[in-house]
Amino acid sequence: MNKTIPATVIDDGAMYQSERKIYPRDVHGRFARLRKLAVWVLLGIFYLIPWLSWGQRQAVLFDLPARKFYIFGLNFWPQDFFFLALLLIMAGLSLFFFTALAGRLWCGYACPQTVWTEVFLDMERWTEGDRHRRMKLDAGPWNREKILRKGGKHLLWLAFAVWTGFTFVGFFSPIRELGLRLLSVDLGGWESFWIGFYSLATWGNAGFLREQVCKYMCPYARFQSAMFDRNTLIIAYDERRGEPRGARKRGAREAATRDPGTATTQGDAREAGTTGPGTRVAALGDCIDCTICVQVCPTGIDIRNGLQYECIACGACIDACDAVMDKMEYPRGLIRYTTQNALDGKRSQVVRPRVIVYGLLLTAIFAGWFWGVGHRSALIVDVLRDRNALYRVAADGSIENAYTLKLINKTPLAQRYRVAVVDEHDNAIDGLAIVGGDNEIDVAGEQVLSLSLTLAARPDIAHGRRNVRFVISDSRDPDLRVQQDSRFFGPLP
Fold this sequence. Notes:
Blueprint lengths: L7 E2 L8 E2 L10 H19 L4 E2 L2 E2 L1 E4 L4 E4 L2 E3 L4 H22 L2 H6 L1 H17 L2 H9 L4 H27 L4 H9 L5 H21 L1 H7 L2 H4 L10 E4 L1 H4 L9 H7 L14 E4 L2 E3 L10 H4 L20 H13 L6 E4 L1 H4 L9 H23 L3 E7 L6 E2 L5 E11 L5 E8 L9 E3 L5 E4 L4 E10 L7 E10 L6 E9 L4
Antiparallel strand pairs: 1-2, 3-4, 5-6, 6-7, 8-11, 9-10, 12-14, 13-14, 14-18, 15-17, 15-19, 16-18, 19-20
């Protein structure tokens, strides 16, 4: 088989192979349109969301100093860390699910490295031209045109990278205030550092490293094979249909089919056999060895060499090959989404037990996450008993215990809460009451309130240890009710 191997400089003692620069060729087709759509949608979400408002606050804001996350009217506190853990579990399962189903969809369409690299490539094409012109420009001497084109490209890259860094920091610091401070050159040290850091990271990763991130830095490329099987949808070259490859005129395939005895092919035609004495048949596959599938690949691989870990499943080679097949008047699908079983002529089953199990687990966890977020309590209560003394005797002979009541109002609105003390069976305790009789407490929005509270009991019921329960309820919403168990101590009988 004739295989195109990328030119590399290999040092046996090195841990890194220095490869030639890749100049991806522009391509059009259904998968290219899907990639462009994904870029517009994902970047639109990223750049637009920080500017949206929800009430009096930024719609999405991760306030790390206050340890509060605000997401479209929902606010998450450190006590809600459980939901973040579930999100990470769902992200991992989603990766397993989509990889088992259709390979590296994440890498080809949604990975930030892919998305920003696509934008940077568009800027490069706009300033330096198509693939041939970019290669010619890099090979040529430094002159006025090269300086202007290269300089213009890097100015665009840098401006877009700075905007990216600014937007990213805007998720953690109110972006409107951040913009005003940026214009007045009044940014804080940490804000300046992180804007600069993410700007340079974007500029370097999407502008210079590009496919090197996918090949050498991303761990997903290394362990993806553990999630593949022979029924996983992959982008593959149909070797049985395409080989032996070689150049020919349009329509040569049909001519060979109609009249094998007179069929001739162009270029590297191979003699496949004979149909009879003295009759030559030049049997070429559908691949015309144009290498356009290699030229459009953003990682520079030759998909005709089989499944490779560098493939990010972007579908560019499918669009390129389909366009060539259309010009040659051949059927599409020489390079296509398929499975290894299908390539081998075996029965393929895309929806299989592994995919079903992943899907059911994801559905259950997603449903549980949304239910938990929708039903989580807007009030957090903690009762700490004074450990300095078990009890004290008041002037009237009653037995008193001191407590610290901590209330966290997670809503942005001020609330009034009612405090009651009952036994472990939620029954009122005769002879036990809150000192002062004030059982209603006002708590401001998102306030953490700690206050001292004293319980007093008649001497005749305050003997030894007694279980008590503090019940805090919203005076305007009876359904909001939080309870906390504690103990009341008195003298031994």
